[in-house]
Amino acid sequence: MAEKHIARSRYDHFFCVAGIAVLVLGALLKMCQTVPALEGVKSALNLRRIYDLPIFLIIIGAVMALRGFLASSKHHEGEVVLSRKTFGAFLTNNAILLAMLVLVVVICVLQPRFMQLRVALDILTQSSTRLIIALGICFTLLIAGTDLSAGRMVGLAAVVSASMMQTATYANRFFPDLPQVAVWMPIVIAIAACMVFGALNGFLVAKYDMHPFIATLAVQVIIYGACSLYFDMPPNNSQPIGGVRPDFAALGQMRIFAVEGFQGISILIPIAVVICAIIWFILNKTVFGKNVYAIGGNREAAVVAGINVFACIMGIFILASCLYGIAGVLEAARTAGATNNYGNGYELDAIAACVVGGVSLNGGIGKVSGIVSGVLIFTVIQYGLQFINVSPMWQQVIKGVIIAVAVAIDLTKYRRK
Amino acid sequence: MSEYVLEMRGITKTFPGVKALDNVQLKVRPGTVHALMGENGAGKSTLMKCLFGIYRPDGGEILLDGKPVKINSAREAMDSGIAMIHQELHPIRFRSVMENVWLGRFPGHAGVVDHKAMYEKTKELFDDLGLDVDPLALAGEQSAAILQMMEIARAVSINAKIIIMDEPTSSLSDREVDFLFKIINRLRGEGRAMIYISHKMKEILQIADEVSIMRDGQYVGTWPALGLTTEEIIKQMVGREMTNQFPPRTGAPSDEIVLSVRGLSSPLKHSFQDVSFDLRKGEILGIGGLVGAQRTEFVEALFGLRGIESGSVTKDGKHYRARSPRDAKAHGFALLTEERRATGIFGILPILENTVIANQRNYAHLGVLNEHRRTEEASAGCKELNVKTPSLATLIQDLSGGNQQKVLIARWLLTNSDILILDEPTRGIDVGAKYEIYNIMLQQVSQGKSIIMISSEMPELMGMSDRIMVMCEGRVTGFLEKGQYSQEEIMRLATMFAAHQKDQGQEKQPAAD
Fold it and tell me: What is the rounded average pLDDT of the residues A34-62?
């Protein structure tokens, strides 16, 4: 087997150089597209057909160069081995990402309109609330549990927040006499309602050692019932909630950095990024996060080490429900409405995304970066397949295959030789 | 300052059906290594778990520095300056070494972990102990020896006054043991007390200051290690009275050899190696040894549950190698497993199902079961073994341990196996049921079947076996013929640890299952 050893510094340099090359290529293409003097080149190369590819190239190049630069400034020693073995390891470690990349390229070839900044931003926007839910559910997966109540909590938060956020002039108000309250109040109430049920989840699991599958299944049904009762209260009587106040809807619909010719970035994206950063911090930098990994990795050892398992499990379910609550509020704001069926089945999508992102259902293994890519993969595939007019039925089949294949590949990593 | 850093007085602990600890005492002086010895099941680990807050004793008191304390959890034990290095090491495999060391006590402020401080403290701790391990390496990738040292580092880091070490050398090579002893000597010099549980006489006499011995859940006595001999320790460990607990053996095994094992070795270096013996028709072969002697692993390999690297087995003159328990069953083997609850009974199924499960195929025609024959044979089998139950529909988990065991034996008798492997057949069952099981064993051998019996109970081993094979660390250390039996001799063979062990700490240990 051919093996090639390369000094790490050279390896990092390669990244720097390649990144800069891609960046320059992107910049050149962009120039050809925009500078009127180069109109001839543009039409000769049919550059209109590549849409925003130059911008993507610039971004990709910048990220590559930055990565190489950061890596080379950190460590200089060691070697990188390039051989069939390390190549194979690279393939298995990144199989799903690579498959997604291939798919994206195929879609781009079939339908060049896919290469638009607008499409990328759409994908990120659609991923935002899903990501928040997945980040919540990952805590319960990390302790080898699960949370089936996630979707219904999203619905609960959506209904509760929207019900208090209707315009004064709307005919079908949920609370006809409710004054125009400050925006934060219904949000806090909605999230708190979720956290109460989250605490119930945690209590059942921690106190009675109930399997999370059962505990959260029970709570899921309770939440749906309770939410429907609330939704059915007169005068609303199970009418979909509409007439949502614009200041509330802005939470999910506002676009920032919108300029002439650019529609802007949805506010959902920065919200998801901030939450992502917070969760990453909790998992990696706090005692609570470490305890979550410890309990998931080896519960006995955690008990013997004197970790307060009860408090930790309670914390996990309450934190998770808080995230579902946030997601629910954002969903209500984004769609400017709510019904009691909001969020139905979201938990399974979130679990699938976590699992595809490398979170182990046996507990103790999982990273935020994995969850982010897991969520993105599903959105990209869904969006991309729609883009090239693949029927929704086939989309389902493909989605299922991805889950099975991703987990099978992931498990081979941990299988003992 | 009191004379003893730790005093345990009158500790009693009862588990359902068993009195695990009966009025046990232990007194440990500061700055000493106190060895705690006894046979398997003597109650050493139970006593230590009481001290560490994992079990709550039913009676008795614990005094630290002369002051009575109540220890209700591992956390409280650690807060009172007690650290325990557990016999079975289970690190959190996918986390770093340093996280395992500081688990439960991460350095930091307001719930935020200070990784830099943790790294530096770990580095300092490891340097201090002379350990060359990267604190950031994954715990799951470390050898057993390094994990052991990691646990010791952990005990040192909580500044424990009392460090409990339960079989700390069981997975260490000689060189690593020397290293461990160097650390122990240093800790002793700092005035810490260590409670050292081990079966290895040589180590005890080398490192211990005092030796306390337990037997059958009771305290026997404490002696200064200086001047104590291996023979004396063994005598105190096994010195119980022999009473007539066994039915008389009538008849003798024939000369016909039914099973012949030659040089059977496991692919795992620390497991059984080079096991050879012959089993005759109508013979009861006892296998003696301590925990970790790999006896269970050996019989499981014979039954097709574990891999075999080399060696041969001949059954009835034909070559035999079991690839699965199905295979073994087809060749006339039966295995009564050690862990009745985990791998024996189907607790929530009725006795009927539990009895016929290994023989189900014979009651089926085209996959449809003949209910009549099933019931008939199960009831005949249970009757023959005198299983005390209201009906075959009773759930097996509602029976006593002894009756459960009889059902399991009935299960294997239905398969018409001619080699019965019984792994601790009377563990955790009462005296009366034991006697019945002994009777069944004798009845079976008189019908021409052969039995291989693993037992950790000396009297049972000597009372029932026609011959005893003793194992230690996976090797056969000797055979004893009937008439040569003595507890001292068995104990001597069971503690014949190899002088030169393989440096197994150097190679990567396979991850624990």
Answer: 82
At B200, the pLDDT band (50, 70, 90 cuts) reads confident
**Residues of chain A that touch chain B, judged by Cβ-Cβ distance less than 8 Å:** 285-291, 293-294, 297-298, 300-308, 364-365, 416
Q: Work out whether strand B59-64 and strand B6-15 pair parallel, antiparallel, or are unpaired.
A: antiparallel
Residue B161 backbone dihedrals phi, psi, to 5 degrees:
-80, -30
pLDDT at residue B513 tops 50: no
pLDDT at A415: 58
What distance in Å separates residue A21's CA from the closest CA in chain B?
36
Pick the closest to residue B426 from B513, B348, B338 (CA basis).
B338
Helix, strand, coil shares of chain A, percent, nearest 5, are: 70, 5, 25
Q: Across residues A101-105, what is the average pLDDT?
A: 88
Dig out the tokens for B8 from the structure: 């345990």
Q: What is the model's pTM?
A: 0.77
CB-closest option in A286, A294, A308 to B103:
A294
Residue A248: CATH number of its domain: 1.10.3470
The strand order across the sheet containing B6-15 reads B18-28, B6-15, B59-64, B67-69
What is the nearest CA distance from A79 to chain B, expressed in angstroms? 18
pLDDT in tens, A127-177: 999 999 999 999 999 999 999 999 999 999 999 999 999 998 888 889 988
Instruction: Find the CB nearest B91 among A285, A287, A301.
Output: A301
Domains of chain B plus CATH, in order, are: 6-91+142-238 (3.40.50.300), 256-332+417-500 (3.40.50.300), 344-416 (no CATH)
Residue A414's closest chain B neighbor by CA? B94
Q: Which domain holds residue A406?
A: 105-414
pLDDT at A41: 77
Selected residues 389-428 of chain B with any CB under 8 Å from a CB in chain A:
none
Mark yes or no for CB contact A305/B103 under 8 Å. yes
Residues A6 and A136 in one domain: no
Of A38, A61, A93, which residue sits at a domain end?
A: A93
Mean pLDDT of the A344-359 span? 93
Whether the CB of B134 is below 8 Å from some CB of chain A: the reply is no
In whole angstroms, how large is the CA radius of gyration of chain A?
24
Q: Is A293's CB within 8 Å of B92's CB?
A: yes
The pLDDT confidence band at residue B122, using thresholds 50, 70 and 90, is: very high
Q: Same domain for A148 and A14?
A: no
Mean predicted lDDT score pLDDT of chain A: 89
Q: What letter represents residue A201's amino acid?
A: N
